[in-house]
Write a structure and sequence with these properties.
The chain is 29% helix and 18% strand. The protein is of the alpha/beta class. The chain has one domain: 3-Layer(aba) Sandwich (Arginase, Chain A), CATH 3.40.800. 54% of the residues are buried. The protein binds manganese (II) ion (MN) (2 copies). One manganese (II) ion binds next to loops.
């Protein structure tokens, strides 16, 4: 099937930080590993829709932000998101731990207003406070929701829901497609301005072993692509987080992340 001509400017921004990982470090080295897989000669730049990086989709690699694992990182990340939105480009952020999604969404919402958010994860990341750290990678969506930065939050692939996070989900009216109920066509797609956050532990460890928190019984790569295929596009931004190269096997998970970059970039162009 021939796709319509589309052009979008996508900005790749690396966020090499582990500052709010609760269990293992490693995500800080993810951006370089994902870029290496993305720009490797092992594959070509076509997305599954036919839109190609470098041809239909202009990809500008902005490199990594100079993060120092200090409180000022939050502002740097927010500013990068705001600047991208003001420049009229779609930022795709490469984490880093999942903390980064809170400042990214805050920075984008400062320009676009509250976002529709589609979030893939084994975990709801709704802890009010995890281990005494309100910026924990287990808490970004609590920070987003309590500030009214999302008009709608849809979480997909969840399979670790405890009482506290269930109560938080009710408090914030989070829509959840738990893994036990998952089918691609059961996922409500939030409205524009749409943001997509992919925590790679949403995937079954068989597909993405390179994560800090292995949680069996998860999504396949194809499951995520099937949901993304239902997104009308375009996006205002996206992130791929929690890749931990030190846990990976033969770079399998880096290639998954690189493929997701291509598919998110294609979505950024779709419907543009
Ligand atoms: Mn997770
Ligand atoms: Mn997460």
């Amino acid at each position: 099937m021939k796709t319509p001509q589309a052009s979008a400017q996508v900005r790749l921004i690396g966020l090499p930080t582990d500052s709010h990982s609760s269990f293992l470090r490693g995500a800080a080295s993810a951006p370089a590993a994902i870029r290496a897989a993305l720009f490797s000669d092992h594959g070509n730049p076509a997305s599954e829709s036919g839109l190609e990086l470098g041809a239909d989709i202009h990809l500008d690699d902005a490199g990594d932000l100079p993060l120092e694992e200090k409180p000022g990182d939050v502002d740097l990340i927010s500013q990068a998101a705001t600047t991208a939105a003001r420049d009229g480009v779609v930022p795709i952020f490469l984490g880093g731990d999942h903390m980064v999604t809170f400042p990214i969404v805050a920075g984008l919402a400062a320009v676009h207003g509250p976002l529709g958010i589609l979030h893939f994860d084994a975990h709801p990341d709704l802890y009010d406070d995890f281990g005494g750290d309100p910026l924990s990678h287990a808490s970004p969506f609590a920070r987003i929701m309590e500030r009214g930065l999302a008009i709608r939050l849809v979480q997909v692939g969840i399979r670790t829901l405890n009482q506290h996070c269930r109560a938080q989900a009710e408090r914030f009216a989070v829509e959840m497609v738990e893994m036990r109920d998952f089918a691609p066509d059961r996922v409500p797609i939030p409205p524009a301005p749409l943001y997509i956050s992919i925590d790679l532990d949403a995937l079954d460890p068989a597909f993405a072993p390179g994560v800090s928190h292995h949680e069996p019984g998860g999504l396949s790569v194809r499951d995520i692509l099937s949901v993304l295929d239902r997104v009308p596009g375009p996006l205002v931004g996206a992130d791929i987080v929690e890749y931990n190269p030190s846990r990976d096997i033969n770079g399998m998970t880096a290639v998954v992340a690189a493929k997701l970059v291509k598919e998110l970039a294609a979505l950024a162009a779709k419907g543009d």
